[in-house]
Design a protein that fits this description.
Layout: H1 3-15, H2 18-25, H3 29-43, E1 48-49, E2 56-57, H4 59-86, E3 91-97, H5 102-116, E4 120-126, H6 129-138, E5 143-148, E6 155-168, E7 180-181, E8 191-194, H7 199-207, E9 222-223, H8 226-234, E10 239-243, H9 244-247, E11 258-261, E12 265-275, H10 281-296, E13 304-306
Parallel strand pairs: 3-4, 3-5, 7-11, 8-9, 8-10, 12-13
Antiparallel strand pairs: 1-2, 5-12, 6-10, 6-11, 6-12
Helix pairs in contact: 1-2, 1-3, 1-4, 2-3, 5-10
Protein name: DNA-binding transcriptional regulator OxyR
GO molecular function: DNA binding; DNA-binding transcription factor activity
Family: Belongs to the LysR transcriptional regulatory family.
Length: 312
């Protein structure tokens, strides 16, 4: 049994196809198939049901994959120990970021990080929170930036900052005369939301849980971006809520429509999250230091109330 064989097993389990797995592991398909067959013969079991399309794991195969992932992770930890001992910060690092954070946070820290740690090959992927959780658990991501708490036993969370919610209220709206707003002012049927799948949407819904739902609207508008929500709001179709960092990019005229909450302001907790196996910890620490450093100057809010980012 070799680490290479276990990596081939993990690749087939992920892609459910021998040809794709071979491409991803940079070997020929016959080589990969032969090595997996050798492992199956050594263990005297079948890991994969090859008669199924796509290929499926057998019941014992599922247990083998779980153990294989642990063994491969532990083998990679050896290199981590060596890197940390040498003070080396480098190598490939896969980072996931949720879509409502990417456009504001990424430009703030990416250049500073790559300048300070040029030997790190950062691979960034925009993913939803459920996708991030799955990929962290499966070992396909090294870390991620997401709204927390997520309450996942195998995932560690380190808070980077607290980002207040800010109301965007057009001049024709019933709340436009207020200098500051409260969560009690909000009615969910009156708020333009991000489409399903965004944790910020779920946070807004959780914030409005105590408000009555009128159910009398003729339409419900949802969008995939805050920019679209602002445009719809400007057309008089309702108010919306924005994360604070997004308000830094609105035009001077649109800033007149921003309304902050009375303290404690509802806010989302944004954290750097990673597996409790703590692989590549030296890069995780470097990311945490750079991001928390650049954000500290942008967000000075302290008196906040953290809103749950998950569906209830």
């Amino acid at each position: 049994m070799t680490i290479t064989q276990l990596k081939y097993v993990l690749a087939v389990a992920e892609h459910q196809n021998f040809t794709k797995a071979a491409q991803k592991t940079f070997v020929t398909q016959p080589t990969l198939s032969m090595q997996i067959q050798k492992l199956e013969e050594e263990l005297d079991i079948l890991i994969f049901n090859r008669s199924k399309k796509p290929i499926e794991l057998t019941e014992v195969g599922k247990k083998i994959v779980t153990q294989a992932r642990n063994i491969v992770n532990e083998s990679e930890r050896m290199q981590d120990v060596v890197d940390q001992e040498k003070g080396f910060v480098g190598g490939e690092f896969k980072l996931g970021i949720i879509p409502t954070i990417t456009p504001t946070l990424l430009p703030m820290f990416l250049k500073a990080f790559t300048n300070r740690y040029p030997k790190v090959q950062l691979k960034i992927e925009e993913l939803t929170t459920p996708e991030i959780i799955t990929q962290l658990q499966d070992g396909h991501l090294d870390a991620a930036i997401a709204a927390t708490p997520l309450r996942q036993e195998q995932i560690k969370e380190r808070a980077l900052y607290f980002e207040p919610f800010v109301g965007y209220i057009p001049s024709n709206h019933r709340l436009s005369g207020k200098n500051k707003i409260d969560s009690a002012d909000l009615e969910l049927d009156d708020i333009l939301l991000l489409e399903d799948g965004h944790c910020f949407r779920d946070g807004v819904i959780n914030l409005c849980k105590s408000s009555k739902l009128s159910g009398g609207d003729q339409f419900q508008l949802e969008s995939g971006s805050f920019e679209t929500l602002i445009k719809l709001s400007n057309e008089g179709l309702g108010m919306t809520l924005l994360p604070y960092l997004h308000t830094l990019d609105v035009s001077e005229k649109e800033q007149e429509n921003l309304r902050y909450f009375n303290e404690p302001s509802p806010a989302r907790e944004v954290s750097l999250i990673y597996s409790k196996s703590e692989l590549k910890l030296q890069i995780i620490e470097a990311l945490y230091d750079v991001i928390s450093g650049v954000v500290r100057g942008a967000i000075a809010f302290q008196d906040v109330k953290i809103i749950d980012p998950l569906k209830k």
